[in-house]
From TrEMBL:
Entries under SUPFAM superfamilies matching the protein: EPT/RTPC-like
Pathway(s) the chain acts in: Cell wall biogenesis; peptidoglycan biosynthesis
Compartments where found: Cytoplasm
Name the record gives this protein: UDP-N-acetylglucosamine 1-carboxyvinyltransferase
Record's catalysed reaction(s): phosphoenolpyruvate + UDP-N-acetyl-alpha-D-glucosamine = UDP-N-acetyl-3-O-(1-carboxyvinyl)-alpha-D-glucosamine + phosphate
The species this protein was found in: Paeniglutamicibacter sulfureus
Top EC category: transferase
Length: 426
């Protein structure tokens, strides 16, 4: 099966099209809900978006950019958090931006405070607009700033990049995120004419320019979807060749995958993931920002660890409530205990705060079918692969959440041999 452009890059790359004074072309675009949401948001802001039906490439022309109402944005955004990233580009082109109250997966506290603080550093004025959202203005334009993030937040780093490239002067952001998707966004912005350097110790410097061109860019492949299918192969004693999977972006995952007992073969076009036989091995693992073990890789891997012989410990340090999905695994027969203590080598920011952010998994345990309601994107994928490995039939609701980040998910499951039936709910 094939993975295409990364969910954590493509919507942000689409937003970046607002910064150019000519059309942008984005290639390797997946058919996922987040892309549909951003397409709608761009259109209500006056951007012309056309899709090449043969290739799936998107062309975005920002020449008609205009202000949208909070109600329009709220209607088209749904549960997405992407509207917050429209602010910098809209402030540059229109002098104002509106954002509604934001949704997203319920995996932890992801306030927009980081984003608003970033915008204030550039000179934006924030006006609370009540229950409909927030109004942001730039009465004197935006000026570069020196910013130190309290945590290497991907979203806040994206906000800095999308705002700083056309701000007056130089911007320096310390403790920035340096995930592959961030570096790919930087590559895209450089194609537009931005001046950006990534230094040591998570420092990014941007020299603002007066204007940017459109871009032509191929999005990097989705490493999180690749890792998800790798875990699916492990859980189901399967064998999956993931076309498009890139080894360079999966180094930490591949190290862990082989430690557990999974195997893989790397080719120029992708990676074959498979269960080689024998027992899976337990491990102790902490999630972290890049280049550490991605939090999005953790949930599908936990399902595999329920089948490992022994006790595994996972310390989640990125999102404090990411283990909520394990309740369904316990109902299916898994042995998972959650703890509020930091069960890792280094205490994290969630310690002593009553967040159950560490998990102890004991295996192997046989899984049985159950009725499951999907809580979030990666947790939902984890539930599905647990159901495929379980004895009996599972009934799963909330499947639409998985479509946020997995292209043609149900078709891929069927192609891989899963027995799945979709029922419409009245």
């Amino acid at each position: 099966m094939t993975v295409r452009g990364a969910k954590n890059l493509v919507p942000k790359a689409m937003v970046a099209a607002l910064l150019g004074d000519s059309p942008s072309v984005l290639r390797n675009v997946p058919e996922i809900k987040d892309v549909a949401v951003v397409t709608s948001l761009l259109k209500i802001h006056g951007v012309t978006v056309t899709k090449d039906e043969a290739t799936g490439d998107l062309t975005m022309d920002p020449s008609g950019t205009k202000t949208a109402t909070s109600n329009e944005i709220d209607t088209h955004a749904g549960d997405s958090r992407i509207p917050i990233l429209f602010c910098g580009p809209l402030l540059h082109s229109l002098g104002e931006a509106l954002i509604p109250n934001l949704g997203g997966c319920k995996i932890g506290d992801r306030p927009i405070d980081f984003h608003l603080d970033v915008l204030r550093h550039f000179g934006a004025v924030i006006d609370k607009a009540g229950p409909l959202g927030t109004s942001i203005r730039a009465p004197h334009g935006l000026t570069g700033a020196k910013i130190s993030l309290p945590y290497p937040s991907v979203g806040a780093t994206e906000q800095v990049l999308l705002t700083a490239v056309r701000a007056k002067g130089t911007t320096e952001v310390e403790n920035a995120a340096i995930e592959p998707e961030i570096l790919d966004l930087i590559s895209l912005l450089q194609k537009m004419g931005a001046i950006i350097t990534v230094g040591r110790d998570r420092v990014i410097r941007i020299i603002g320019v007066d204007r940017l061109n459109g871009y032509n860019h191929k999005a990097l492949p989705d490493r999180n979807e690749s890792a998800s299918w790798a875990s699916a192969a492990l859980v189901t004693n399967g064998d999956i060749y993931v076309e498009g999977a890139a080894q360079r972006d999966l180094t930490a995952f591949l190290h862990t995958y082989r430690q557990i007992g999974g195997e893989f073969e790397v080719t120029d076009g992708g990676i074959r993931f498979f269960h080689p036989g024998g027992e899976l091995k337990p491990l102790i693992l902490e999630t972290d920002v890049h280049p550490g073990f991605m939090t999005d890789w953790q949930q599908p891997l936990v399902v595999a660890l329920t089948q490992a012989s022994g006790v595994s410990i996972i310390h989640e340090t990125v999102y404090e409530n990411r283990f909520g999905f394990t309740n369904a695994l316990v109902e299916m027969g898994a042995k998972v205990q959650l703890h509020s203590e930091c069960l890792g080598a280094i205490p994290c920011r969630f310690g002593q705060r009553n967040f159950q952010h560490s998990a102890v998994i004991t295996g192997p345990t046989p899984l049985v079918g159950a009725d499951i309601d999907i809580p979030d994107l990666r947790g939902g994928f984890s539930h599905l692969i647990a159901a495929l490995a379980a004895e009996g039939t599972s009934r799963v609701t909330g499947i639409e959440l998985i479509n946020r980040g997995y292209e043609k998910f149900m078709d891929k499951l069927t192609d891989l041999g899963a027995r799945v039936e979709m029922n419409e709910i009245a």
